[in-house]
Amino acid sequence: MSEERHGTRRSGGPRKAQEIFDATLDLLAEKGYEGLTIEGVAQRSGVNKTTIYRWWPSKGALLGAALIGARQLDFTPPDTGSLTGDLEALLHTVVTLLTTRPASDIAVSVLGAVTHSPELAVHIRDFLADRLALEQPVFDRALARGELAADTDTMLLVDLLAGAAWVRVALRQLPLEEDFVSRAVGTVLNGARTQT
Question: Is 175 left (phi over 0), alpha (psi -120 to 50) or beta?
Fold first, then answer.
């Protein structure tokens, strides 16, 4: 089927799923998680709130579906021909997400909300699992080229890189140096010790 991945007609979602997802992320960026309401999404998307509740029983469930299915966070895994290049491209995606509005407002709102909402945390785990599944070809190709050991923990690799960006931008609120991405990838892949 040619329908989009999650929360669409293919998986049983409503016909106007994209409008609902876009409205959800727009409101999240504007008002934060506390200000996000099903009623607000219904009004902005032009979809009856009973339709939204039929598919997503809470704003946490709706936000989880929107993070996976919305056009605003579309993601195509890179294929630069090397693990280093692919990881740099992945990290550039994270950096752009954290430093460009409205995506940065969405990311920071989700980070703040997930610490207070166990329900939302479940949906964020689904989003991260979906994103890691999309990134898997990067690691499959690197393994086939002999750039990665077969027992590499790819989730840890992604967490180390994305975590560096999140800490630097969202928590420390420091600007990113021009070479941040290449230095972070180099450190994760090669370590910090002196090469002998």
Answer: beta
